[in-house]
Design goal:
heterotrimer, A mainly alpha, B alpha/beta, C mainly alpha, A: two-stranded antiparallel sheet, 11 helices, 2 strands, B: alpha/beta, Rossmann fold, 2 domains, 14 helices
Chain lengths: 283, 442, 325
């Protein structure tokens, strides 16, 4: 049972981690707490769904396309909305992302109605039944995909030129500009990537979760908590926070009480943050 | 830079814009709430309003937005169908179908005014709005027990009939004066569930001993869980697991792992459709399927059960108050009419028909009373006459007791076989044998 | 204390005018739905003003004030339902419990800065919601329905007409509004503003930031709790869903920000505009799924983007412009 719990916790955690990393990226670079991340996840799910319906694509295969589309959307949203919001006070920025989330979720409701949809025909189905562990391929594939994307994200942020530029802008914007980094562009790319990652998480989630315009909010709250748990500015922290929360979720549910498991998650979070105000890995 | 420029210009035109906005909002505030065009500003009494109007107005509360909106749209279509049957000449063989409108009120037609049912407190204000601003004489709708309670605050206060299919037994225990319920309540459904299990044990040696409950954490699930526990004791079944979970959860894995560990013979679920989908997917992923999953309506009665789960839905059971395979020709006639002209091909399902039936029965009572006076309608409801050969629901008709419950209702248990619900219990109404246990995931 | 108010002549005249309008307004209103909107406006004014103290003045953005709202509502509900105690008494109990909760939470949480504080308050509110949901003693998911026809209406604060509610709530709004005005001009307001602009500098000048942040948090919790108690008595039914989802907490911030964060009048204006917009969009656009919230979201984005200082800031700017001439 314990091994099963660890496996399941890692899966949930990895998806939460992807959302958390998207939030952490925007938080770290622009100091904006984006409440629209759940809706970007939802849009990713719908893109995967329609690609599956019209072109029979497996959701995992549609990840590159989804990420590209969401990146584009993120850039547009940045230019139209966020760049303006950045010039105002911090609270306004948060409220704007919150309202943006509302607009996206309800816009989708208007467009496609709230009918619950699922993707039924996926490439990898079935389970592998080891004695102490049942591995569902439908869950293994998401796990591998999210780990891959996480690795790609780390590589991008740490090894590529653009990634380093973004990190520099995050650390010290004026200094970065002095060495010739276009901070506007860095912000724009960071926002775009964060949307892209959320979109990818949506594709992955659509493997086994249902699709409806309001799915975002459930994931958002815990994504945000995961980020705060991990620490400001640390993408690795967000990743760790997400995984940790997934594990706590499953273990608390199985060994404690399913009804109160989210209380456990929140209390653990508040305790950790009380003793380490900057999160586990914060700077 | 852009922002500073905007500031300079905004100093000039934004105050004007604000002024206009505020002016418009104040106008709207003064005008808001009423879509009925009234000739004068005086506050007419409700009866005056009703008799002066050309129509009898019934309020219907439906979820028009949010996740339940699709079900709301189906109910709206069904309500429209019944209203058209009453208001226009119709070939369907039920009372009030012949002729136009209500014969005892000189052919006055039924008019429906809709309100959005988003949450318990909006139910209260919408019911109030429909009664006070739209002169509704009664309120029906796609209620849950929670929203019924708040709507009842308004209907009891302003004196309007409330017919709701919220299944909590507490609704009839509260002593409401103007409340009615046509179909069974939870105690009946749960008791029949256990009787069905006993029946399977006796007739087919099914050997069912253990049960487990999965309940979502709102009014719906929590109420049923209490009743399920009580009856389990009465009927002598062992409860091996009792799970309450957060509805619309992001994952249900811990719940499913616990159930798999407990391995009950029968799993009783009260969940909404989103969770049902997730449960079935999660069970599949851990390669577990209990011998019987019996839902207490809710998500099990949603049309998405078939579209979202497809073949995975085979074998699921649910209690219900009505089914398409009832041995009554009117059922098929109504369904054909519904599919052809109102719903775009979607079948009538129990939870949809129930709300529309509420509107229909209320209209019958208004007609029988011959007036829109609420007390007259109430007394007509208690003495409702209905020809027994024109029923389209199971049971013997309509006999409402003091608390407003119709005691002629019968509950059914259906199982999904070959892609649709088929009635398997009670014996008198069943069409097909139940399959137990249900095969696993291979 | 009164000197602070009466010194500002402009404020006095404006306030008295608004008060007179507010008091005679019900005479002209025929439809209960409109009265309903006005009552909601009063509740949101209280919520906005309460939040403004910690969020606007002290600059600690809390995203979890729905918790105190819930505590206030539940204490009144339980008091009436189980013990038949009048809400006039229970609202004070609610305020005390909220204050205690604020102290318990504030201790660890107020040490957090910026986004961390926001997220932690969100987590706290979510905890509260789940606990209330599962505590059968407070009705759990079923909530509590405490309509009581036996005791006199003034005792139970359960009236059949809306006007008494409106006037009672208006009284509270006026009291809290005046208190905010007093605080604004007092040393406390001054300290809070200092903390908001730069906490470290404020500390170095000798201001006890921890103490004043805690005071602000307690005051805001108490006022928000009051609003919760009043609302519960208005609808005579509460359950965890009415009160605590994340949206409520965000909308409380929204009210203050749209009107003008950190100002006295801001939350009042913001509450009015916001409530009217949301009720109007809901009743007009209910037929199209999601359209009402869509419009609402768009309006919020537009207002917050182009007027980050809130609606009130437009009028302040105009004043400044005139003075130059």
């Amino acid at each position: 049972m314990i091994i099963q719990c660890i496996f399941e916790g890692l899966i949930i955690g990895s998806i939460l981690a992807m959302i958390a990393m998207g939030i952490a990226l925007i938080w770290g670079v622009m100091n904006v707490l984006s409440f629209a991340q759940g809706e970007f996840l939802m849009l990713g799910m719908y893109i995967a769904f329609y690609l599956n319906q019209k072109l029979d694509w497996d959701p995992i295969l549609s990840i590159p396309v989804t990420m590209a589309v969401m990146f584009g959307l993120g850039v547009v949203i940045y230019k139209v909305l966020i760049s303006r919001a950045l010039k105002g006070p911090v609270l306004s920025q948060r409220l704007i992302t919150f309202a943006l989330g509302m607009v996206l979720a309800n816009g989708m409701l208007m467009l496609v109605s709230s009918e619950f949809r699922t993707i039924k025909e996926v490439m990898f189905t079935g389970t592998v039944n080891l004695d102490y562990l049942v591995v569902s391929k439908e869950k293994l594939v998401p796990l591998i995909s999210s780990m891959t994307i996480t690795a790609l994200l780390f590589w991008f942020i740490n090894k590529t030129r653009y990634g380093k530029a973004i990190r520099a802008t995050a650390m010290e914007k004026d200094a970065a500009e002095l060495v010739g980094i276009d901070s506007e562009k860095a912000y724009m790319i960071a926002f775009g990537i964060s949307c892209g990652v959320a979109g990818a998480a949506g594709c992955i989630l659509s493997y086994y979760y249902y699709i409806t315009p309001t799915v975002g909010s459930g994931f958002l709250l815990f994504g945000v908590i995961a980020v705060a748990l991990g620490g400001f500015g640390s993408i690795f922290g967000a990743f760790a926070g997400g995984i940790l929360m997934g594990l706590i979720d499953v273990f608390a549910g199985v060994y404690f009480n399913t009804a109160l498991k989210y209380v456990v998650v929140c209390v653990v979070f508040m305790l950790i943050v009380s003793f380490k105000p900057k999160g586990l890995f914060g700077k | 830079m852009m922002f500073k420029k905007m500031e300079k210009h905004s100093a000039e035109w934004i105050p004007l814009l604000i002024g206009i906005l505020l002016f418009v909002t104040v106008l709207q505030v003064a005008k808001a709430g009423g879509r009925v065009t009234e000739p004068s500003e005086e506050r007419l009494s409700k009866e005056q309003q009703a008799t002066e109007a050309e129509e009898v107005i019934i309020g219907v509360l439906l979820p028009m937005s949010g996740t339940q909106a699709k079900a709301g749209a189906e109910v709206l279509a069904a309500v429209e169908m019944f209203v058209d049957i009453i208001n226009e000449e119709s070939k369907i063989g039920i009372p009030l179908a012949e002729g136009r409108g209500l014969p005892n009120l000189n052919g006055k037609k039924i008019k429906i005014v809709y309100g959005d049912l988003k949450s318990a407190d909006t139910a209260l204000s919408e019911a109030e709005r429909l009664i006070t601003s739209e002169a509704a004489i009664g309120i029906c709708g796609m209620f849950s027990s929670a929203t019924t309670k708040t709507a009842a605050v308004s209907t009891e206060k302003y004196k309007a009939i409330l017919i709701s299919e919220g299944t909590s037994p507490s609704l009839t225990a509260k002593g409401y004066e103007y409340f009615f319920r046509i179909f069974p309540d939870d105690t009946m459904y749960v008791r029949d569930t256990y009787q069905f299990l006993e029946n399977l044990n006796e007739m087919e040696d099914a050997g069912i001993r253990t049960v487990a409950f999965v309940s979502e954490d709102t009014e719906f699930g929590k109420n049923i869980e209490v009743i399920e526990r009580e009856y389990a004791e009465e009927f002598g079944f062992d409860v091996v697991e009792n799970i309450t979970y957060s509805s619309n959860a992001t994952n249900l894995i811990s719940e499913c792992l616990k159930i798999k560990k407990a391995d009950p013979d029968v799993l009783m679920m009260s969940s909404y459709i989103s969770d049902v989908i997730l449960y079935m997917n999660t069970f599949k992923q851990i390669d577990y399927m209990p011998g019987m999953i019996i839902g207490q309506r809710g998500g099990f009665m949603a049309s998405e059960l078939f579209t979202a789960l497809g073949a995975d839905a085979e074998g699921l059971y649910s209690t219900s108050a009505w089914a398409l395979d009832l041995n009554l020709p009117l059922v098929q006639e109504l369904n054909e009419l519904y599919k052809a002209e109102y719903s775009g091909g979607v079948d009538l399902i129990a939870d949809v028909l129930k709300c529309a039936a509420d509107v229909y029965v209320l209209s019958l009572a208004v007609n029988q009373a011959g007036s829109t006076d609420v007390d007259a309608i109430k007394s007509a409801m208690h003495n409702l006459k209905y020809p027994s050969d024109q029923l389209f629901i199971s049971g013997k008709g309509f006999t409402f007791d003091e608390a407003g419950q119709n005691n002629e209702g019968v509950s059914l248990i259906s199982q999904i076989q070959d892609g649709k619900y088929q009635t398997v219990y009670p014996k008198e109404l069943k069409n097909i044998d139940a399959i137990y246990p249900v095969p696993g995931w291979e | 204390m009164w000197k602070v108010i009466t010194r500002d002549k402009k404020f006095c005249t404006g306030f008295c005018l608004a008060l007179i309008v507010a008091m005679i307004l019900p005479v002209f209103i025929k439809k209960p739905f409109v009265m309903h909107i006005l009552i909601l406006v009063c509740i949101w004014m209280l919520l906005g003003m309460g939040w403004n103290i910690i969020g606007g003045y002290a600059g600690q953005i809390s995203n979890g004030h729905a918790l105190f709202y819930g505590i206030g509502a539940y204490t009144c509900g339980i008091g009436m339902y189980l013990f038949k105690i009048s809400p006039w008494i229970m609202m004070w109990a609610g305020m005390v419990i909220s204050a205690l909760t604020a102290i318990i939470l504030g201790g660890p949480l107020l040490r957090l800065k910026g986004h961390y504080f926001a997220v932690a308050t969100m987590a706290a509110a979510e905890c509260g919601r789940i606990i209330f949901l599962n505590l059968d003693f407070v009705g759990g998911a079923t909530g509590i329905d405490f309509l009581n026809k036996d005791l006199p209406a003034w005792y139970t604060m359960q009236f059949t007409e809306k006007e008494p509610y409106y006037y009672i709530f208006l009284c509270f709004v006026v009291i809290v509004f005046l208190l905010t005005k007093v605080m604004d001009g007092s040393k406390l307001g001054y300290y809070l503003r200092a903390i908001k602009s730069n906490e470290d500098s404020a500390q170095s000048v000798g201001i006890n930031t921890t103490k004043y942040k805690m005071l602000a948090y307690i005051f805001s919790a108490v006022i928000v709790s009051l609003a919760g108690s009043l609302y519960a008595n208005y609808i005579q039914y509460i359950d965890p869903y009415i009160l605590m989802p994340l949206n409520i907490s965000m909308m409380i911030c929204l009210v203050a920000v749209m009107g003008g964060i950190g100002t006295v009048v801001g939350p009042v204006v913001g509450a009015f505009v916001m409530t009217v917009i949301s009720e109007w969009t809901r009743s007009t656009f209910a037929s199209i799924n999601g359209f009402d919230l869509f419009i609402y979201g768009v309006l919020v984005i537009v207002i917050v983007t182009y007027m980050p200082g809130g609606i009130v800031s437009i009028f302040n700017k105009k004043k400044a412009g005139c003075e130059k001439v």
